[in-house]
Design a protein that fits this description.
CATH class of the largest domain: Alpha Beta
Order of helices and strands: HEHEHHEEHEE
Number of domains: 2
Strand order of the largest sheet: 3-4-6-5
CATH superfamily of the largest domain: Histidine kinase-like ATPase, C-terminal domain
Amino acid sequence: MIMSKRTGIDIGTLIRNTDENNVIIYITSSDDFAFEAYCVHAVRYLLKPVREELFIEALDCAVSSISKNAKDAMYTVKTKEIPVNNYEFAIVVANLFDNAFDCVKSFVERRKFVDVKIRCEKDYLLIHMKNEYEKEIVFDPETGLPKSQKGRNHGFGMQSVQAFSDKIGGNLGCYCEDDMFHILLYAKF
């Protein structure tokens, strides 16, 4: 929450001012800003060390909040216990959901969906997420991944997905086909 020039509340306020539907969860070692977190409409304020059940509950709350904002969005997730860090994995999935929901939030009901398949076996992990899109998707020439069109303070979610993929020795890629955007992460263990 406390950084050299800004607090987490300052960052939360910037996020909230960018899009009132963004979901904010604070994870901190300080309880000094709990009231301020309430004022920026954070869905949870978790104190370190975070117990896994509280973290999972916070993610459930975040997904519920996103689902309410996306109204009739549909998604399915099938997963088993995974041989990667649960927190990092949850953040990656949350970032991918956030990007997909942001893309479909203005669509008419029949097009407002996000299809997610997560398959994890003892020797591999596969995440495949797809959704329709309307706006042109600009790809970064270096990474081949979508480039945020929201300005310089955006795109960190996709960077964290790339970092996770690199950390577990995975391959991350995306493509557009028949008005559908696909992103895939594959890692062999």
